[in-house]
Every structure is written in C-alpha cells, then in structure tokens.
Amino acid sequence: MSQLEPDQRDTQLVVLGAGPGGYAAAFRAADLGMKVTLVDPEANPGGVCLYRGCIPSKALLHVAALLEEARAASAYGIDFAKPRIDPAGLSAWKDGVVEQLTAGLGGLCKSRKIDYVRGRGVFYDANTIELQSQDTHWQRLRFESCIIATGSRPVLPSELASESPLVMTSTGALELNEVPPTLLVVGGGYIGLELATVYAALGSRVTVVEMTESLLPGVDRDLVRPLAKSLDRRLDEIQLDTSVSELSVKNAKVSVVLESGGSKGPQRSFDRALVAVGRRPNSSGLGLANTKVEIDGRGFIRTDVERRTAEPNVFAIGDVAGDPMLAHKATHEGLVAAEAAAGRRRGFEPAAIPAVVFTDPEIAWCGLTETEATEQAREVQVGRFPWAASGRALTLGRSDGVTKIIAETGSGRMLGAGIVGPRAGELIAEAVVAIEGGLSAEDLALSIHPHPSLSETLMEAAEGVYGLGVHVHKRRR
Ligand code: NAD
After folding, report:
1. In this structure, which residue's CA is closest to atom 43 in ligand 1?
2. Among 57, 159, 160, 191, which residue has the most ligand 1 atoms within 8 Å of its CB, making it the best to mutate?
3. Residue 196: which domain range?
C-alpha cells in the first residue's frame, strides 16, 4: 500500500454491513488471520435480521403461538382465562432478546480483534472507503479487499407511502407500540402473513390484501392450503386479486380504497396499516460509480460464484447480491467471500436453500418445488405424507400438516422437499442435508427415525416415492 495520509487508516478487509452475511464474513476472515474492519450504523453487529427482522418477529410469533395454543386447549378440556396483554411488557421482552444477541455478537467481534466502526462507508475508489462516522477521527479507509453486505429495505410504492406512523413497514410493526383494534396488511407474502399472525393473536382484527390470486405466490399450493384455512379462521378477511388504489391518513385512521378486477370499492378505514410488498437491495448511495462494480436492472450487485464483483477485490453478498433474500443464504455467501478474499478457492453453489414462513402452521421447502418441476417438465416422483396419519402430530392436536418429497424418476435422487405444519422450519433441515449429500429418497426411507416424532413424516413421505408407506391406506388387488 502507498503512504497513508494522517486521516487514513488501512486494513486488509473491510466489510460494509454487519448483518448475518457481513458479520459472518468478518468473523471468518479474522479467523483466517486477516486484519478486518466491520462498518455498520448500529451499536453492535446484527443487521436487519437481529434488530428489525427475523429475531424480533420470531419472538413475537412465539408469543402468538402460546396465545393460540392456550385458546385451542379448551378442546383438551382445559380452559384458561382470557389473557391480559401488556404491549409494553411484551415489547421489552422482545427487545431484551435482541439486546442479548447483538451484545453477544459485539463480544464475539471484540474477541477476534475486529475493528468495529459505527457508521457508513462510501466508495471513494476501488481501494478506498470514505467513512461517515462519529466514532473515528480518520475518514478514509484503504483496503485490499471489501465485502459489500448492505442488505435490503422495504419497498414502499408511492401510492402506499405516508409520513404517518399509522402506516408501518415491518420495522414499525415490530416495534409493537400498540395493538390496534383493526389492522390492514398490504401484501400476503412472508412478512405480511407472519405479522398478520402476530397481531391477530394479540387481538387485532386483521384484513390482508394480496394483489395476486393466492397467498405466498410461487409456493406450492398444497403447502399453502392448510395455512390459508388456518388464517381464514384467525383473520377478519383475506382479499385476493386486490390492491390498494388510494391511501391517506385522516382523523387518526388509515383510509383506503381497495381495487379488485378493475373496480374500486368503497372507502374503508383501519386503525393502522402494514405495507409488506417486498424488499429492494441497498445498492444505491454506496459510491459504486467510483468503481467497476456492476448492478443489474433490479438493483442487485452482479457477482460470480465466489461472490466477486466486476472489481476483482470487491465482493457482494446477501440481499444486495440477489434472491432469495434470506439471512442463512447471506451467511453462507459471506463465508465463501471471506475465504476467497483470504486466497482460498471456494464457490457458492448450494443444491438446496431452505425457505421458511414462520406462520402457524409453518411452511418450509428446499430444492426443487413441485411447481418448478411442472414448469420445467422434469420427470419427478412425489411422495406425500398427510400428518393426519402421524401419531406425533395427533398428540400435538395438529393433523393439518403435509410432508412431501420430490425425487428424480428412476434414480430416486432427492431433488426437493416441502412441509407444512408446526415446526416445519426445523424439520426441513434434514431434507437439505439429504439433497446436499446426493442421497436418494430410499436412503431417507431406510434411515431409522425416532418414534413418535414429526421427523417420521419425512421418512414416510420418502417411502411414498416408491408407492410404499406403513401408515397410508393400500388397496390390495
Ligand atoms: P414477499 O415478496 O414475500 O411478498 C410480498 C407480497 O406482496 C407478494 O405476495 C405480492 O404479490 C404482494 N404485493 C405486491 N404489491 C402489492 C400491492 N400493491 N398490493 C397488494 N399486494 C401486493 O415480500 P415481503 O413479505 O415484503 O418480504 C420481503 C422479503 O423478506 C422476502 O422475499 C423474504 O425473502 C424476506 N423475508 C423472509 C422471511 C422468512 O424467511 N421467514 C420473513 C420475512 C421476510
């Protein structure tokens, strides 16, 4: 490196953004012996996932599940009194979980001697970041390699935008300032349905408006059906093929006009609205024009298999580098980029990335979906096991689940799996390992699973691929 000016520092690797992608990359690079600087506006690592996403939403979903389970207990002969909900107490507990995790990450950062800078970085050139930070007296950071891990932010179309705190994105909804008597959720995707579940359990009357013809567009219909049935019971209304054509805030109410099939309905009002219509990558405002880094039409940074951009010493990972926008995908990309920056040969080439919608029931899938198999005219065999035939599911009072395995015709090689039911998000990991390991459905069917457990549903679905299955009806000819 050239001579440094007094206001400059140098580092081997700078990571911009300390979410699950960025901090994992920084930690791995430090473990490989690199001198690392991690830059993020928050006091500690964690990013959107820990501060305003996965973790606070899961804490609230846990409480929602508890409330629903207590209500459902009357079917088991147990009646609880109506719960008293203290939003401030609930919020404090959720914030405590976030604090514990982010402080823990801060400690992990320190023990690795990573230089954590609270602020933002903008590219001055392909080897220099300009820092906007109140923590440092130096403003320029010269680096050998950089990993961009700046994540994404909610999309807020102009017709849905409002200055009022009554119109929330997921960030505001997770703060849980109050439980509104009525809530409009715009968007029937991951975020809309998870937060609709939370607010409905806490007592809000929730209306979900989804633009397309079904909830969770793109997800296999047989997996969505049990969830749609459960939401029909819990929510006030689900309006499909519907969008919001006008939105304004009047007299402390959110006033909207819903539009379906080209015709506008009457004006309606809600106490709050949540807009969850997707997220967009944070690739602007980074000074990328001062480098050779390229951006595609959707704003994602273009990368190769090592997550290297068109600027060979600059990498991009996580939400800013393409779909799916999932924390665990970002983490694995981060590890690949860190190792590549440290001079190791690595590639990000997963055979299966799990996706989970943490509703009740949960929906989880990985690898090839049945919808994709049909679209691609792939020769597949599908084994399906209904949870109504699972002893463990019935002891939990939950017969609404389904587990399915998608295998290559002939070889039986595992290509994909889908699960709907409580704990689907935990169960799907077995299918990920099977697909990554090149196992066949028969390997899964022959592996002894503990009884009674929900994991048996994977084994039984795998048997189904071969037309077998102990707990399904077979007509003998
Ligand atoms: P999403 O893409 O999952 O869902 C957005 C939904 O809004 C879609 O169904 C879309 O058809 C609908 N929509 C779009 N415009 C609309 C409009 N004007 N009116 C009504 N409906 C409209 O997006 P999201 O729920 O905002 O989540 C963003 C991303 O965050 C996801 O893609 C996901 O990767 C990630 N995420 C993941 C999890 C998880 O892993 N459990 C949870 C939350 C978010």
Report:
1. 191
2. 191
3. 158-277
Q: Which residues pair with 405 in a beta bridge?
A: 383, 417
Q: What pLDDT score was predicted for residue 4?
A: 63
| Ligand 1 environment, Cβ below 6 A | 157, 186-192, 194, 209-212, 217, 243-244, 276-279, 324-326, 356-358
**Can you give the CATH number for the domain in which 436 is found?**
3.30.390.30
Q: Cα separation of 218 and 230, whole Å? A: 19
**Cβ-based neighbour number of residue 399 at 10 Å:** 14
Taking CA atoms only, the protein residue closest to ligand 1 atom 12 is 187
Give the tens place of pLDDT for each residue, 62-100. Answer: 999 999 999 999 999 999 999 999 999 999 999 999 999
pLDDT digits (tens, 9 = 90+) for 379-389: 999 999 999 99
33 and 98, same domain (yes or no): yes
Token pair of 273 as six digits: 């609205």
Residue 164 identity:
S
Strand partners, 38: 15, 116
**Domain match, 264 and 328 both:** no
Q: How far apart are the C-alpha atoms of 37 and 88, rounded to whole Å?
A: 36
pLDDT in tens, 395-439: 999 999 999 999 999 999 999 999 999 999 999 999 999 999 999
Instruction: Examine the residue annotation and report whether 137 is marked as an active-site residue of this protein.
Output: no
**Span 359-370, average pLDDT:** 98
**How many CB atoms sit inside 10 A of residue 5's CB?**
11
Same-domain pairing of 313 and 168: no
Residue 3's pLDDT is 59
By the 8 A CB rule, do 407 and 381 touch? yes
Ligand 1 centroid to Cα of residue 69, in Å, is 27
Number of compact structural domains in the chain: 3
Do 142 and 93 have their domain in common?
A: yes
What is the C-alpha to C-alpha distance for residues 386 and 399, in angstroms, rounded to an integer? 8
Residue nearest to atom 2 of ligand 1 (CA): 278
Same domain, 45 and 178: no
Indicate whether 287 and 254 sit together in one domain. no
Task: Give Rg (Cα) of the chain.
Answer: 24
| Whether the predicted pLDDT of 114 surpasses 50 | yes
